[in-house]
Write a structure and sequence with these properties.
Largest sheet: 7 strands, mixed
Strand content: 15-25%
Number of helices: 15
Number of strands: 20
Helix content: 10-25%
Length: 579
Amino acid sequence: MAFRIRLVEFTADGRKIVRDRDAAAAELTLGRAAENDIHLADLALDSRHARLKLEPGGRLTVEAEGKLGFTLDGSATRSASIDPATGAELGFGSHRLGVSRDADGVTLLTVQRIDIGADEGFDPKRSFTLASVMPSRRMMAWLLAALILGLFLAIPIVSNLTTAADPKIRSISDSSWSPGPLSASHHGLENSCKSCHVKPFESVRDSSCKACHKTTHDHAQPTRLAGARAAPPLGERLLQTVAHGFGKPGPGACVDCHTEHEGEGRMEPTAQKFCADCHGTLKERLADTRLGNAADFGTLHPEFTPRIVTDARTRKITAVSLASNPREDNGLIFPHKLHLDPRGGAAKMAINLGRAAGYGKALGCTNCHRPTEDGVRFKPVNMVRDCESCHSLAYDKVGSTFRTLRHGDIDQMVADLRASDHGAVPIISARRRPGDYASGGTYYANFAVPNVGLSSVERALSRGGVCGECHTAQPGGVKPGVVPVTQVSRFMAGGWFDHKPHIQEKCSTCHAAEKSVSSADVLLPDLKQCRTCHLGEASSKAEVPSGCAMCHAYHPSPMTPKQDRDWRKQLAIGLKPED
């Protein structure tokens, strides 16, 4: 063997521990890195500080490999040649390496850490610090802890108790307890903590929320909510018990859903789990509910049940599932396919009218369906604005002037047409058709109902007449008229749909109007069609991950049928005479 390395250490009580190990190599490395033969954990050393080599004559050469050198018997140097028989002491940072020859002739390297000034009880570094005039670290820690408790706990508590009678006075240092800024909705309360936190160390109560949100309705009756709520698992029950011990209300409290101090901007929507806890297995606890179980839009959700007109004469509106292929009876005779056919007569008419009249090469959805100002839904179709360009209400001509009927005013229509029976020749019997079907065209024919034995009023209300072309005549009775028209402005009364985010899509992507040959077709996308883009909140495959709050509101509003005594007024817009 070439070297014997002896490591000398001392325990806390001063007991000496000596460990020897032999190294057969003729060359050793020393440094801070662990892969060195002599590893010294000292930040004052380089990773590979020095190399020790035993020469053939028995002498030991030491060479510094890093930027730092070492000491030889107290003198700084970068290289040394030592006779182990004579001995020497090398200094590497806070370590001393003694070189000597052991009793069996092996070169002995004794490594020992030296605390500078320990023998004299004096630390030279301490003379350059404030440690001699400052309290100890332990004392400083206690003083700072007391200062923090006083500034951020004791003073705010005392200030709150002394100003509790006046909620307008803000407690001193209470902003230090705020976990973050308020959302944009509550930004005005940023400097008024007592508006919500009425009592110290108590969670916000529902009464504080309802003091401002007075018109907010409950999700359902309290007894129904209690019966619908699923029993939480054991772990959640334990957490609720701990929360109740600290004054937090719930379950079902406002703060369970509406969490604040999570940053500026809008308040985050409710998580899907909050809804699924009840609605995921709702039928198991509320057997009489008409609602289907719903926990995730991509995996568990009932088919849509839009509210459609099922009886035009009584304007009855019924919620019907799209799974049953429902038929609508809104009082109109209107085939979408005829109007959207790019090679049909309606397209020819649009071409003739041209862009100056607001038409393109053919009729499109936007020619009749105009969005509301907010872009959420569409305005009711208006006869004068959207239809009369093609569907003329002219019934007589006096010189160069055409006489037209007033849309929606049946009594006036009857009076005008009966007056025309006694004089001018009506033009109803030979109404012009667009394109090649017009008078003088290739396919010209008289499409009007034969007028033999019929008055002009009867002809107008007959199928194909000026009124009967789009409307159904009112059956029975002496007084002529048409079945009232009801246009549903909001089919999904229990949910919310916004057209504006879908503006990049074509109408035909969701509404199969180009194939519809009857006004009774309900041209609404079903659940499967919506799932091509929308899936559950946590879905990684969805183009648009969608939680419950995207389409549903927890608190019912006056637009919700259950809260509105006459909800038909909100869902249906009947045509007025001026329309």
